[in-house]
């Protein structure tokens, strides 16, 4: 593996780490909102998503050590799973917003 390949891989891993950091921040925000509105179903969902985030962090560490043949597949899988998680967080955020709007109008 050459220096350029190593640098490209590091940049991709750094990008994934940054996206996972964004996921963590969003999880913390949503957890606080869910606890404020006493949205137990959403709290459970957020807890499950936090566990998935932890698993993705572990997969990122494994990906960093992967050989060429497995690295590309691990990269594609991780990209897909992070995108899926961000979509799930957006859905939770929308449901919490709807709950807050409903509570504010009553």
Structure, briefly:
The chain is an all-alpha fold and 106 residues long. It has three helices and no strands. Helix 1 runs antiparallel to helix 2 and helix 2 packs antiparallel against helix 3.
Gyration radius over CA: 17 Å
Percentage of β-strand residues:
under 5%
Order of SSEs, N→C?
A: HHH
Overall SS class: mainly alpha
Indicate the percent of residues in helices. Answer: over 70%
Distance between the termini: 62 Å
Number of separate helices: 3
Write a structural description.
This protein has 106 residues and is an all-alpha fold. Helix content is 92%, strand content 0%. It contains three helices and no strands. The protein has helices at 3-36, 40-64, 68-105.
Features:
mainly alpha, 106 residues
Write the layout of secondary structure elements.
Layout: H1 3-36, H2 40-64, H3 68-105
């Amino acid at each position: 593996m050459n220096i350029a390949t190593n640098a490209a891989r590091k940049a991709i891993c750094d990008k994934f780490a940054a996206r996972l950091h964004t996921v963590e921040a969003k999880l913390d925000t949503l957890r606080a909102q869910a606890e404020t509105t006493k949205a137990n179903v959403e709290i459970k969902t957020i807890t499950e998503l936090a566990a998935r985030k932890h698993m993705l962090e572990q997969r990122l560490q494994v990906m960093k050590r992967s050989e060429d043949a497995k690295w590309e597949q691990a990269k594609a899988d991780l990209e897909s799973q992070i995108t899926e998680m961000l979509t799930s967080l957006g859905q939770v955020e929308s449901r919490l917003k709807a709950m807050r709007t409903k509570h504010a109008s009553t």
